[in-house]
Every structure is written in structure tokens, then in C-alpha cells.
Prior knowledge:
There is one protein chain. The protein is an all-alpha fold. The chain has a single domain (25-283), classed as Rhodopsin 7-helix transmembrane proteins (Rhopdopsin 7-helix transmembrane proteins). It contains eleven helices and no strands. It has helices at residues 42-72, 81-108, 111-144, 146-151, 155-178, 185-212, 223-249, 258-274, 276-288, 296-302, 307-313. The longest helix is centred in the middle third of the chain and has 34 residues, at 111-144. The protein is globular.
Amino acid sequence: MERYQSSFNSTFTPTQLPLNTTVPINATKKPFSVIDGCEQYLEAILFDLTFQSFNVIVGIPANLLVIAILIHNRKEASTSDIFLGCLAFMDAYFGVMTPLSFFNLYLWNSKEVWFAIKFTFGVKDTSGPLFRSCICLDRFVAVLFPITFGQLKHIKYRLFLTLVVFCLTCAYSAAKMVGGLPNFEKVFTGEILATFTWMIACNASILWALKKSRGAGKDEMHPMKKKAFKMVLSILCIIVFNYLPPVALFPFEDYYSPDVFRCYVQPVGFAFLNISSTVQPLVYLSRLNRLPFLPEACIKKFSSCFSTENKKSGPTQNPTA
């Protein structure tokens, strides 16, 4: 029997099975239960619940605003905007499904809705790491191989990568929804390790190359390189914050007891992954000074490390160009 991926993410599974389990739903006729088998680890479940609540309250409007800005600036879009737009759409979709999960738990108790929720978790598991990897690839080629980047600047190459990511996301999500595949949870562990390693190595190489590109005795980078440096640095911060916990915890599953891993380790790890649906758009919007749902003092603090260039280029300029 395969292990589930998150105790709270698996909120609506049959009794004795967590919500995000890959075991077929018809394997038992017991009623749904949120915390059955995890009563001693409520802290981890509440921790994950709190993070997912932020996705609903802050993440959904932030992602919709990101999409609106990208559409408004489409005539001056950067090459990475298509990946950012798809990422914002997927994160908004993930946030929308969270209240549906609550309704299904307390009102509907619908197996069909439960399958949709499982599909949503598959989308979140796959689309975020892959689209961020595409953004890193785009910036990596632009900075380290500018001639090649110029030859591959046409949007058709980004559309192809986007289509590949959507296909992989749908395949993974469908498999998670159906369940029953042996060792299926190891697919995500392998994916997150591979994408995390790639993104860290890629962004570190970009930052090193951009810093090295300064001329002797010069303190300022070229404006285009400054934009790339700033975007890469923000992505690197997101990667470390959101992906390091599951990367550090999940590969050591055998060192934990089954109950501790299922009910404590996984909810905590996935909580940091889930909150990326809020962190990603907030970091992007902070560079544009576009956070209308937060107090001005909070905006200044949040965007302090990204605001230097905005004072020169204006608040509506796309920093990912």
C-alpha cells in the first residue's frame, strides 16, 4: 500500500488513509476522516492548514493580479512571462480548490469532488517545480549563452516547453487521482530532488556570472543584467524557502516510523511547498510595488531588497525582461 504525501492534503480520504493517498478510493468503504490515525500529530496538520489558508486569502488575489499585469504588459513581455503566467494560473487554481475541500468534508462528502481534489494536489506537486525550472533555464541561457539565447528567443520554444510541462502535469495528476501505482510517492521525491538541484545550480551559476560581468572598478551592472540578477535572486530565495524542507526530509522516509512520517513529516514538508502559491506572486508584485491588499508599511518592508531598481525604471516596468 502506497504512502500518502500529506496528512492535511489528504484530508478527505477514507478512514485510515490520508487525503493525498494514492491508494484507490474504492479500496475501503469506511467514511472520510480528516485526522484518523494522526490524532497525536495535530500540530503538523494545523500548520499545513494555516499555510493553505494564506493561499486562499492572499494567494488567489495575488496570482490573479499577476496574470492581469502580464496580460496588460504583453506587448513588452519578457521571454519568461509565459512561464510566470502559467505558474500564477496553476497556483490560483490550487488555491480555489482549498475551500472546495472544506465543503466536501463537511457538506458534500462526494467521491467525485475528492478525485478532483487529488488531481489538484498532483497539479501543485508538478507544475510549480517544472515551471520554475523553465524560468531558471530561460535565464540561464540568456546570461551564460547570450548568442544562443538570441537564436532561441522566439515564443514558439517557450510554448513548446509549456506544452511539455502541461502534459507531464496532467499525466502525473491523473496517476495520482487514479492511485494504486506501486511506489508512486517516490516519483515526487525524485522530481523534487532533481528540480531543486537544477534550480540551485542554475541560479548559482547565473548569479556568479552576473557578478563577475562587472568591469574592473565598476560597481554597477548593465541594466538588463541587473534585472536578470534581481529576478534570479528572488527565485533562489523562493526555491530555498519552499523546497528545502521537503528535499531535506522526504528522502529519509525509512528513518521515521510510518505514523510519524505520514502524519508529521509530510504535512510539514508539503506546507512549505504549498505556501509557494502565495510567496511566488508576492515576490513578483513587490518588485512592481503592486500589493493593494497589504498596508503600505508592509509593502515597503517586503520589497525593500527589490526596490532599488524600481526607483529608476518606474513601478510598471516589467523586471523580468
